[in-house]
Each structure stands twice: as structure tokens, then as C-alpha cells.
């Protein structure tokens, strides 16, 4: 028999137990369990539960978390009581059929797939055809630096590719980004990861594989975008620059690789970035990882990040040379 582990319990299982009649299968959004804190009682549902049943979040009031957090809020219990309740209500690991009987639409998460680089042949283009790499090479960045961060060019879709490589050196995902000549993203064509539906997860930090070679005395600068990590590490070589891949992409599972290091969180200058930075610090604090938030942007609220400062300086350097 499997050892009792709350992680085998799904949010759908809890919802059924506590009798949330507004949690109906087949619907994408549910009435928030925190609806008393919503202006209109959450009449237009804003709570989403991930298909695998292990994570929920509310787009309106911002509550989110795993099955324990869900039980805490819906039962108004503290953590200790929640664990007692879970053990009592789910003495053995709930079987797959238990939840699927009532919530037939959801699927168990697939096993992680890794990327087979050889399958990408024919898609990988010349580095100098990539607007992103070309510009950085012009600024003096080395080919080796771009390679170490897994930057490549998808000549088929004419996009820059950022390969996500985990601590064990396996490729877990690719983000494709369309850049403009000023190295800002082309907003009309949003970045894309390989799809979770196809088994590709975003379950590591961008640049994470670099931790393996770096002594613990090196701090980590945690930023949002891959671009910032690539450029930041070119300008400031003392620390290891890693990216979350998006303001809301950091979580506890990804934080463990940072144990034993100091972490400086340097997210974007906007509301989402500042909120995410506070959340990231909480996650790190809970794991006893020393973390500080670095926000040099003052009142700016335009989504600026460190790469914008660095690119500006690199541009000036070139001007002064000529
Ligand atoms: Zn809510």
C-alpha cells in the first residue's frame, strides 16, 4: 500500500467531500471559495482549478495554492486541523475512480516528456539570422554565452528559442519569442511554451542547469524573462542569473534548487511583477532560503526590467566607440 500523502488527494476530491454544489464538472471556472471577499460575491465565477486537480487560483481575489490551501480556506481551518481532517476523511489514498466518477472530464497529469534535440534538426537556423542573437553578438556577447543559456533560432517560425534545461541537464521545455529590432517582444505574437497537453511541463527555472557548476557562494539573481537572464549574466558575471519565464511561474517545486544560496529577486516594474516578487520571497522564506527583493525602478510602473537598463548602456557603449 502506498504511504499516506496529502499530495495524492485532489482539489476535486475535497470539493466533493465538503459539498460545494457550485463545483460542477465540465466547467472551466468556479465560484470562488473566498467569495465573501469579492465585491459581488463572485457572481461571475473566477476560480480556476488545474485539470490535474493539484492547484487552484482565483483571478479576482488572488487566492491560490494546493489541496491543503484549498481545504484551509473552504473549511476555515488552520493547517494543523486541515491535516487531521484530511487524514480522517481520506484514510487511504483516494483512487483514480473516486474523483473521475464525478468529474469525468479531468485527466491525471502525464509523465514529464523531455525534448529530443535531434528531432529539431531542420528547424534550427543560423544564429546570425536571429534578430535577438545578432544584436547581442554586436554588443560583444560571445557565441559560447548564448549557447550556455540555450539560445537558438527557429528558422521555420522565425522566432528566438530559449531552451529550459533542468539541474540534471535534461531539456524540459522551449519558449519561442518573437523579438523586434529593439529587442522588445513583438506584442502581436505572444511567446509560447511547448504545450502541457503534449506532456511538456515548465517545471524548472530557465538557466537552472548552470547551478550545477557554480559554487554555493554565488548568489542567484532571479528575473522574469529569459532575455533578462541572458543579458544580465553578460553584464554582471559575479552571480548566476535565472529566469522564471513569467511573473506567475515561480512556485515551491522550482524553488528547491536554490537551497543554500542567496537569492535576489529582480522582477519587472509593474503591479504583476511586484506582487509576484513578494510571493516569491514568501516561498523562499518558507524554505529558509535567504531572499531579498531588488527594485531599482522607484515609481515606474511600465513593465521595465533590468534588461532595459542594460540594453540602454550597451547601446551607449557602441555610440561612444564610434
Ligand atoms: Zn476569489
Protein described:
With 322 residues, the protein is of the alpha/beta class. The protein has 2 domains: 6-100, DNA Primase, Chain A, CATH 3.90.580.10; 117-321, 3-Layer(aba) Sandwich (Dna Topoisomerase Vi A Subunit, Chain: A, domain 2), CATH 3.40.1360.10. It has helices spanning 11-18, 67-75, 79-89, 96-100, 131-138, 143-148, 226-235, 252-255, 271-286, 306-321, and strands spanning 29-30, 47-49, 56-58, 64-65, 151-154, 159-165, 171-177, 192-193, 220-223, 240-243, 263-265, 291-293. Strand 2 (47-49) and strand 3 form a beta hairpin. The termini are far apart. Bound molecules: zinc ion. Zinc ion (ZN) binds at residues 32, 34, 38, 42, 46-47, 58, 60-61, 63. Zinc ion binds next to loops.
What is the structure about, briefly put?
The protein is α/β, with parallel strands linked by helices and 322 residues long. The chain is built from ten helices and twelve strands.
Amino acid at each position: 500500500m502506498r504511504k499516506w500523502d496529502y499530495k495524492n488527494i485532489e482539489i476535486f476530491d475535497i470539493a466533493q467531500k465538503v459539498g460545494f454544489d457550485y463545483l460542477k464538472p465540465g466547467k472551466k471556472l468556479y465560484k470562488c471559495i473566498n467569495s465573501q471577499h469579492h465585491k459581488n460575491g463572485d457572481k461571475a465565477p473566477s476560480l480556476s482549478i488545474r485539470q490535474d486537480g493539484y492547484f487552484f487560483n482565483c483571478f479576482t481575489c488572488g487566492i491560490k495554492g494546493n489541496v491543503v490551501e484549498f481545504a484551509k480556506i473552504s473549511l476555515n481551518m488552520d493547517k494543523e486541523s486541515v491535516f487531521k481532517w484530511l487524514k480522517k476523511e481520506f484514510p487511504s489514498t483516494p483512487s483514480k475512480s473516486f474523483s473521475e466518477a464525478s468529474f469525468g472530464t479531468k485527466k491525471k497529469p502525464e509523465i514529464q516528456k523531455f525534448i529530443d534535440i535531434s528531432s529539431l534538426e531542420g528547424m534550427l537556423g543560423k544564429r546570425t539570422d536571429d534578430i535577438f542573437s545578432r544584436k547581442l553578438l554586436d554588443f560583444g556577447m560571445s557565441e559560447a554565452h548564448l549557447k550556455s543559456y540555450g539560445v537558438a533560432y527557429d528558422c521555420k517560425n522565425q522566432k528566438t528559442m530559449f531552451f529550459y534545461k533542468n539541474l540534471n541537464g535534461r531539456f524540459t521545455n522551449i519558449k519561442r519569442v518573437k523579438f523586434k529590432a529593439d529587442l522588445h517582444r513583438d506584442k502581436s505574437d505572444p511567446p509560447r511554451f511547448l504545450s502541457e497537453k503534449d506532456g511538456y511541463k515548465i517545471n524548472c527555472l530557465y538557466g537552472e542547469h548552470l547551478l550545477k557548476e557554480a559554487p554555493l557562494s554565488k548568489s542567484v539573481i532571479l528575473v522574469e524573462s529569459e532575455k533578462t537572464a541572458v543579458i544580465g549574466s553578460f553584464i554582471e558575471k559575479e552571480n548566476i542569473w535565472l529566469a522564471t519565464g513569467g511573473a506567475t511561474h515561480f512556485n515551491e517545486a522550482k524553488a528547491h534548487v536554490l537551497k543554500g544560496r542567496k537569492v535576489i529577486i529582480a522582477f519587472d516594474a509593474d503591479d504583476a511583477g511586484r506582487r509576484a516578487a513578494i510571493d516569491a520571497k514568501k516561498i523562499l522564506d518558507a524554505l529558509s532560503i535567504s531572499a531579498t527583493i531588488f527594485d531599482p525602478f522607484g515609481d515606474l510602473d511600465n513593465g521595465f526590467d533590468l534588461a532595459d537598463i542594460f540594453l540602454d548602456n550597451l547601446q551607449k557603449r557602441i555610440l561612444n566607440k564610434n
